[in-house]
Predict the structure.
Amino acid sequence: MKLIRQTMMLGALAALLSPRAALALDCSALPNPVYIQSGDTQEPLLKGLGQKLRASQTTPMTLIYQTSGSCTNIEAMYQGTKLATNPRYIPSAAEDPTWDPSKPAPQCTIDPNGVPLDLAISALFVSSCDPSPPPAGIGLFQGPVQPYVFIVPEASSQRAITAEEAYFVFGFGAQGKVEPWTDESLYFIRTTTKSTLLTMAAAIGVPGAKWKGAMLDKSSEVLNGVATSPSPEKTIGILGAEIYDGNRDKVEALAFQAFKQKHAYYPDSTATSFDKRNVRDGHYTIWSPTVYLAHVDAQGTVTNARVRSLVDMILAKTVTPAPDFDPLDIVISKGLVPDCAMTVTRSFEGGDLSLYSPPEPCGCFFESRVGQPSATCTTCGGDGECGGGKCRHGFCEAK
């Protein structure tokens, strides 16, 4: 009996010391907190950037976040909804030396009365959720581009889908009679507040509320449903490209042929590359910008200094004091395309593309981080080596 009691005591002690005990940590006790509500497609960026910020000597802060649908996030910021459920936070090495961005972030205990949001993140045009102007005191800041993909199991023989096929598959289900996708129970999609569904809905002309399939709350649920399907040939799903990029060993992306196109394209130049070349030049059309919503003053400047610094880092703007890491490198590494690497743009969800020249281009640096820079890219150590151009991130850019 004594041995049993000792075993039970040790078990209780282990439970207290387990990761669940992290809930005892008060969110407000974390250094320089920033409270965020974000779509789950942006969680990889929050983890990667948050880890650097916790270790930073010049721009230290703790990202505390909760994931929800983009439309829900926009509404929360517009309505002043407080963060009231225990969120996740990015730990420091001292708090958890074993944590890295591939793992779930721990939780902290929020004030039961709730905490006002500092920042909300949408992964599509805000007008797709709410066409009205933002309330006074709320600013919208357009960030990196987020591509989306149709996915199938690795065992599927399907390699491409046209917009017309997707229209009949997701708009009519089994009655659409598009082989092999005739079983609606094997369509894994998102709910109507999610950017993934709304962006793809605009691309194929089927309103989000009309889509056929199993509507799932999280990207991880879609990924798991597609990857483990017992009928791979009949299975199809939708996913943010940055989630797909981290799980290419589990599912395959389909090349997409938009309306009026003659060929199907991957977001990248090939099925195995990560260069997002077809997104950047307009061949691949299923994408939206991320949008950051923050409190601003009458001049449109973000009022919270930490939030202003964070947003400027993500938007590749100058930050003072300068961070002791390269935020643009992290944005690129998480599968997003910074505005400075784009050569096309659009003004609303699913809208026509037009040529675009970013004010401070970074295309060569982007290419260097995801593969091989093009032959026209020249390395440099200063503007004087660029023949009138600018040296940015070690490359001569056009301006």
